[in-house]
Amino acid sequence: MPTLRDIRQRIGGVKSTEKITKAMKMVAAAKMRRAQENILQARPYAQKMSAILHHLATKVDVSQYPHFAQREVRSVAIVIITADRGLCGAFNSNVIKAAANHIKTNYSSLYEQGKVSVICVGKKGYEYFSKREYDIFSQHVGIFNSLQFSVAKTAAQELIEGFLTEKFDKVEIIFNEFKSAAQQKVVVEQFLPIVPPTETQKHSSVDYIYEPSSAEIVSALIPRHLNFQIWRMLLDSNAAEQSARMMAMENASSNAKELIRTLQLSYNKARQASITKELLEIVGGAEALKQAS
Amino acid sequence: MSTKNFTLDVVTPTKTIFSGEVQSFTAPGTMGSFQVLHNHAPLLSTIGIGEVKVIDSGGKQKFFATSGGFVEVNNNKVILLAETAESAEEINKQRAEEAKKRAEERLQTKKEVINQERARAALMRAINRLKVSAKN
């Protein structure tokens, strides 16, 4: 049976934890709003860009561009986008688990030969994969605090270079997609080689005037498209992280509230019990005195 | 006049700068400036550093400074995918002046070739911004 003092102390402790989680929730909510705005603004641009690229890919011979080259996959790079910080529910562990699983199911033989390179974006993923038997190609940590387009650009450059020099035959990116404030989804996207459009998309195209030639537009478009894809994924992941954190802190706050309620109840019970006990003792004492006299 | 309008979206990676009905749209194509009016043929073009001129449905002129991107014209819908686009009112003249000065200094010091090119591009962007903001 805990004493009154113990319970009081625990209530105090839980209350201060609740204060922290509440504050973190507010911060995450504010950050999420901004991150959400960013990703929602960036999506139309990304979509339009890939639509133009897909359209052009049907008009020009894509095999002359090395970015489209489908090679036999003898080595693969996996980019894993996690958060820099924890306390956001299953956000990091979901994407890490999915990545480890993905490597195990699809590239286990390459993995055993050491042909799977891992590129970690975000500290949490780096902490996980660097402690295990993974070949870390590079890492970008501490970038989410103030997300810069240049980060996306350097990451994209590095991947493109690796692909063009045949260091990797395939590049895939695993990240959390921002669905809504309450929902994130882990997705795997192929980054390189660029996925050519499917047959059904081919027929719906219009005849355009190209200025300069379509080939030149494609070569101008490809690097921008790739940079922007990475940027979009970073924004997606950032928005998803903030919303995951908000939800996690929301849950923590409500759990704290519930805990305080039950603790308060047992505190009150213990207090009443001790008062009753004291009364009994006084009455008992008075009774004893009466009998003695 | 309302039948002669078409829709224009100016989109940048960070936000949608403009979206609405316009009468005319002029962009600095890499092969030379061009104008788009109602019922323009489908067109895909790259654009360079320069000014974008828009006449909106009310006949008012609007200017944007852009630093390159793509234009798609199809079925009376124009989409400008710009790397950056700032309307004339938005441009911070002081910042542009400073950027211009910085770029000029860098060009004078003559270091590596790559930096030279970057400085030249920065200078062009700054001059373009100043030019566009003067039209406001």
Compute the average pLDDT of chain A. Answer: 89
Q: What is the beta-strand fraction of chain B?
A: over 45%
Question: Helix coverage percent of residues of chain A?
Answer: 55-70%
Query: And the CATH topology of the largest domain in chain A?
Result: Pyruvate Kinase, Chain: A, domain 1
CATH class bucket of the largest domain in chain B: Mainly Beta
Strand order of the main beta sheet of chain A, please? 3-2-1-4-5
Structural class of chain B: alpha+beta
What is the percent of helical residues of chain B? 25-40%
Q: Which geometry of chain B do the CA atoms define?
A: elongated
CA-to-CA gap between the ends of chain A?
A: 38 Å
Give a count of the beta strands of chain A, DSSP E runs of length 2 or more.
6
Radius of gyration of chain B: 16 Å
CATH superfamily of the largest domain in chain B: F0F1 ATP synthase delta/epsilon subunit, N-terminal
Number of strands of chain B: 7
Class based on secondary structure composition and strand pairing of chain A: alpha/beta
Protein architecture, described:
The complex is a heterodimer of chains A (293) and B (136). With 293 residues, chain A is an alpha/beta fold. Chain A folds into 2 domains: 4-20 and 250-285, Orthogonal Bundle (Helix Hairpins); 30-246, ATP synthase, F1 complex, gamma subunit (Pyruvate Kinase, Chain: A, domain 1, 3-Layer(aba) Sandwich). Helices cover 63% and strands 14% of the residues of chain A. In chain A, strands 3-2-1-4-5 form a 5-stranded mixed β-sheet, sandwiched between helices. In chain A, a hairpin with a 2-residue loop joins strand 4 (170-180) and strand 5 (183-192). The model of chain A has no long low-confidence stretch (mean pLDDT 89). Chain B is of the alpha+beta class and 136 residues long. Chain B folds into 2 domains: 2-87, F0F1 ATP synthase delta/epsilon subunit, N-terminal (ATP Synthase, domain 1, Sandwich), CATH 2.60.15.10; 93-134, Up-down Bundle (Single alpha-helices involved in coiled-coils or other helix-helix interfaces). Helix content of chain B is 29%, strand content 46%. Chain B has helices spanning 93-109, 113-134, and strands at residues 6-11, 16-29, 32-36, 43-56, 61-74, 77-82, 85-87. In chain B, strands 1-2-4-5-6 form a 5-stranded mixed beta barrel. In chain B, helix 1 (93-109) packs antiparallel against helix 2. Chain B is elongated, with a radius of gyration of 16 Å. The interface between A and B is medium-sized, with 25 and 24 residues. Strand 6 of chain A pairs parallel with strand 4 (43-56) of chain B.
